[in-house]
Amino acid sequence: MRCVSIKELSGSVAFRIASLFTVTFALGLSISFFATYFEVAYSLEKSSHEVISTKLQEVAAILVHDNVKGLKTTLSAEKNFALNAPFLIRVLDLQGNLIYLKPDIREKNFDLDSILKTTGVPELGWHKFEAINDEDVFDLLTEKVGGEYFVQIGRSSEDRQSLLESISAGFTISAIVMIILGGLVGVWYASRALKPVRELIQTTREIEAGDLSRRVSVAPGRGELQDLASTFNKMINRLEKVMFIMRESIDHLAHDIRTPLARVRAVAEDAILKDNRDQKEALADCAEAVQELSALVDQVLSVSEAEAGTMALQLEPVDVHKLLGEVADLYEVIAENKQQSLQVRADIQSAWVMDRKRIKRVIANLVDNALKFSPEGSMVSVSAIESQNALMIEVSDQGPGIAEADLSRIWDRLFRSDRSRSTKGSGLGLAIAKALVEAHSGSITVDPHEGPGVTFTVKIPRLKT
């Protein structure tokens, strides 16, 4: 197993997702804690103030009914001593002179002597005093009672501060544990979520090594990673098909080129052995073979140019009826030699915008195939109509038809079915026709009949010059 460096780990997508998950989790946990902490602290402070206010009301009631003497007696009773121990109780007259003082058991933590003045009228309301060496505070409430006294009730916050510190410590320990668990969950989740990506990388490496049969497993359901895996598999299927077609095309191309080259070599060798008077005929044969090779290369380049979208069309209004007539005249002699009938019908009155030379080549390729594969005495028909704002050109024959297994491959470059092996041709006619029609933003389809024969339909939309 290969060791992963810290740099590689920190740069991985799984590490980033896990880190982001952990940081987000920790941030959410911290926000929740601080919100809870301040809510509890506020509630405790509010509760403490209510207790101090209640105690002041009790003291005020005793003062009103029993004066200061009754207050001393009540507070000194054993049963009330423990209840009042946490409170500072201070009674002043209207001039601010101290009349009675019951200290708080925790007041040693506070410098109350310097804080609370023994003379002077005190300020009414709530006051806070900080502890000498602690974070505690001393809450003091001052109220005027019965028109004769000022009563001050105070209490230390030590109890609630201890509770808050316990809550804070408990949260800190819990947060550390939960963040560690959150990080582990983030790593697990990131690893699980990125499993299809790792499979994709592994499959890509195997394909790079030459195994085009490998595919990525697609998990059930819908999602971005499932779509990525499905799209990747479709791309590899397409690539595998292209590679298969390329290998097959190279084989066919090598076979088609081998024959003219063999002729050139044979003629040249024969011319060397013969007298000079035969060299002119030999050179003519060589020129014919080279012309065949050149035509084959031109056809391949034409298909590539059209498929790449770089073909420049010479668009112009074309008389469709006249165009079909020209193609019929071109193949009239070939049809007569096989005693075939070539019928042309064009039910369209207006001119149609197209590249005249290239569409003529499309129709010529289809007619050439129809005559080539149809038996003697058969009929080939070419018709043109306008339908759904498009020009529809149909070429039908009475030949043997197309095998179902070959229907999806007849448009491939250099493809020749078993039935066409014995006939002359390069296997580029239909590929060229399809490429040229699609360059016109059109389409070409094939409709095999339930008997002998087949119909090719060319659809060309209206174009602007």
Strand order of the largest sheet: 2-1-5-4-3
Count all strands and give the number.
12
What's the Cα radius of gyration? 50 Å
From the coordinates shown, what is the CATH architecture of the largest domain?
2-Layer Sandwich
For the record, the count of structural domains works out to 3
Mean pLDDT: 78
Helix content: 55-70%
The succession of helices and strands, N to C, reads: HHHEEHEEEHHHHEHEEHEEHEE
**In percent, how much strand structure appears in the residues?**
15-25%
CATH topology label of the largest domain: Beta-Lactamase
Could you explain the architecture of this structure?
- The chain has 465 residues and is α+β, with helices and mostly antiparallel strands.
- It has 3 domains: 13-164, 2-Layer Sandwich (Beta-Lactamase); 224-307, Helix Hairpins (Orthogonal Bundle); 315-461, Heat Shock Protein 90.
- The longest helix has 64 residues, at 13-76.
- The chain is built from 11 helices and 12 strands.
- It is rod-shaped.
Layout: helices, strands, pairs:
Blueprint: H1 6-11, H2 13-76, H3 78-84, E1 87-93, E2 98-102, H4 112-115, E3 125-130, E4 137-145, E5 149-156, H5 158-193, H6 195-208, H7 224-273, H8 279-307, E6 315-318, H9 320-337, E7 341-347, E8 352-355, H10 356-373, E9 379-387, E10 390-396, H11 429-439, E11 443-448, E12 454-461
Parallel strand pairs: 7-9
Antiparallel strand pairs: 1-2, 1-5, 3-4, 4-5, 6-8, 9-10, 10-12, 11-12
